[in-house]
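=== Discrete structure encoding ===
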Amino acid sequence: MDQQSWLTQRFEDNRPRMRGVAFRMLGSLSEAEDAVQEAWLRLNRIDAATVDNLGGWLTTVVSRVCLDVLRSRKSRREEPIGAHVTESSVVRGEGADPEGEAVLADSVGVALLVVLNTLTPAERLAFVLHDLFAMPFDEIGSIVGRSPAAAKQLASRARRRVRGAPPPSDVGRTRQREVVEAFMRAARASDLEGLLAVLDPDAVIRIDGAARIAGGAADAADTPRELRGASTWAKQLLALSRGQRFGETALINGSVGLLLAPRGKLSRVLIFTFTNAKVTRLEVIGDPARLRELDIAVL
């Protein structure tokens, strides 16, 4: 095997790890592939024989490329949530490989991807490399230009954001999750009886205009709509949910809720208010400005 063939094989051996790091950093399969390709170009500009740990070198290069991309987003004031807020973009198949990106997002966890988007570039890199890929802090520090202790603090701050805080509700987190998952199962199965079982008879639903448009409501408008009485709106909710893929449970403002995030791009959230282990209020939010204000954490 000649030198170039050997180098190509070593690069391909490391491709899954590099792509995994890049996707978790950037939340976009096409951008992740671009970062991996940039690592290949840089590898071909050096003498690989001088690199003691090629896998570590490649991970470091990809991480630095991703960090530059994230910092560029910040400098252009791009908002990750607002960039892909509606499911219509998914239907049109935007991106290099929508199906592949959806599979990869599911494998990572859409809630985690959404929360990672709320971190600073340095926090995101420190958390991804240390907590998800076990890279030591001295190596992470060299990438972000900080000391190992400072890199450890970045990861610690990110970890607190990812995990969230205990819920203030009178229903424990475990019971909240049971109720939300029962709600989700009923919605997926168009099970009216199952849906009503978790709703208080006087439950209120409030859907903002952006969420109604994303959901394909025929009378969609910019103004929110509020309905009272579970029997009044439960059937309509099932009709709007038909054919749609429900997302993942997550902590939203300290309580268990639902994220709808096709391909890891936050589209809508469902916020539940609980009383006596029943849902008394459901708020569906799709407005990008309001989504950015939410405190979202992984369960």
Remarks:
- Residues 3-26 form the longest helix (24 residues).
